[in-house]
Amino acid sequence: MIYFSLQTPSIPTLEETQAVVQEVHQDLQQLKPNAILETIRSWTPGLLSFSYRLLYAAIIIIIGNRIAFYLRRFLKRTFDRMGMDLGLSKFLISLANAIAYAIVIFMALEKIGIPSTSIIALLGSATLAIGLSLQESLGNFAGGILILVMRPFGIHDYIVSEGVEGKVLNIGLVYTTLLTVDNRRITIPNGTLSNAVITNVTAQEKRRIDLTIGISYSSDLKKAKAILERIYREDPQILQDEPITVYVDQLADSSVILGSRGWAATEDYWAARWRIIEKTKLEFDDAGIEIPYNQMDVNIFQKTIDK
């Protein structure tokens, strides 16, 4: 007779289970700190390198800020000694300041690890797009820079350019504003003005008054010349230390053309000119000197026809 024996596995007791759990817990506690430490150790060289790069970038920014400050102060003193226009001076200082900070920022970003070539390419594309859309305005801007640098005229000068004339009220970076003698404001783009022929009437302290007047061939030539010279000599706004000249300019078809020259202060030019012209007419009338004018003689002839 055969007997089969079935052996039932033993069930661990509560104490044994708690012991196993405690052992596993201890192993996990030992494993977790070790893993964190290993991770931190692996990150340490990169963190230290990035910290050093941040420190170098901060040092570059600090030094660059000081250099930009001294550069602004140096440029301001230089422009003041040059007597440069205030608007142009501020613009150039701001431009130099922006360029200096851009260089500093690029150097700092490069030190951190961001390639400056990518930033330059992005800025270049944006600048090209803006330049194409504002081409005419940029031309006026460049013209304003040329006017402010070359200074063909200044504030309060009286200029004449391509049929437009007036006193300069303002020279901006894009437009120049004139005030005409009849109190109208004219705004001219600097791009147009910088490429035009400009006559600066008030650039010099004095101007020469040139007048020509015709007298008839029957009038006394020497007497007319003496009267013209006396008018110039007696005028209070004519500069007597400058040469005064009265001469025969030409022998025209119907008159003898006399020329006269004298100098006056620039601000007195028009008043002196108008006064001399008026006085010449009155003096010639009193002296019986004829000023000829174009005239036409019409003769009517009547012809009789015999029938």
Automatic annotation (TrEMBL):
Sorted UniProt keywords: Cell membrane, Membrane, Transmembrane, Transmembrane helix
Residues of the Mechanosensitive ion channel MscS domain: 137-202
Membrane topology category: Multi-pass membrane protein
Superkingdom per UniProt: Bacteria
Subcellular location(s) of the protein: Cell membrane
Transmembrane segments: 50-71, 91-109, 115-134
Pfam families the record matches: MS_channel_1st_1 (PF05552), MS_channel_2nd (PF00924), MS_channel_3rd (PF21082)
Family annotation (InterPro entries): LSM_dom_sf, MS_channel_C, MSC_TM_helix, MscS_archaea/bacteria_type, MscS_beta-dom_sf, MscS_channel_2nd, MscS_channel_C_sf, MscS_channel_TM-2
Residue ranges constituting the Mechanosensitive ion channel MscS C-terminal domain according to the UniProt record: 209-291
Family label: Belongs to the MscS (TC 1.A.23) family.
Protein name as it appears in the record: Mechanosensitive ion channel
Species per Swiss-Prot/TrEMBL record: Enterocloster alcoholdehydrogenati
Lineage, opening ranks: Bacteria, Bacillati, Bacillota, Clostridia, Lachnospirales
